[in-house]
Amino acid sequence: MVSLFSPADRQAVQAAVRAAEARTRGEIFCVVAAQSSEYRETPLAWAAGAALLAPAVLLLAGVEVSLPASLSDGWTAVQAGAMAESAARAALAGAILLQGALFAVLLVLVSLAPVRRALTPAGLKRHRVRRRAQEQFLAHNLHLTRERTGVLIFVSQQERMVELLADEGSAAKVDPKVWDAAVAVLVEGLRRGRPGEGFARAIELCADVLAEHFPPGPDNPNELADALVELPET
Description:
This protein is 56% helix and 10% strand. By secondary structure, the chain is an alpha/beta fold.
């Protein structure tokens, strides 16, 4: 997947982080992932669901299994029963074949990346993006800063979603809703095709919050890298 970020965007993000951390003891870290999951269960769920519902849909549509009217003329009860059983078996075999064909067709169709993304529920996407953000929070040691003031700004490009995670030092003093403004400006920047500008503005708003509770002191080390981290597709 082609990155949203140009060299100028990356430089803008790095410069914004440096400027922000000069105003606070907090640490801001930025990560962009091409995607947070491949959602391999989506094609299986859609294909299986459609295949299971197919017989019910046929019944609701008025498709019935019936015996020829001539069975009432000269056929014994045993013969009529055998014919009925044969018709039922044929109908069942047809339904199974229909289910199998429908499952195979939908599995292939929904496995196409654009279709799979479109048919994956937003709630599942949000869950996977949040989980990936939490993984990155730990992987880059944001939980190990001296005052536990690390803030992760995470973008999942394919899902077009943003997560902002604050460590316990910041979370203890800042209402989680305060970070919503930073998320909103970043989302708007991404929507307008200006990711560097969106990130820079979000970083500035995060710095405003952190500076209020964690102003810079005489000893203010830079504990995390300032550069934007870009993760490839999983």
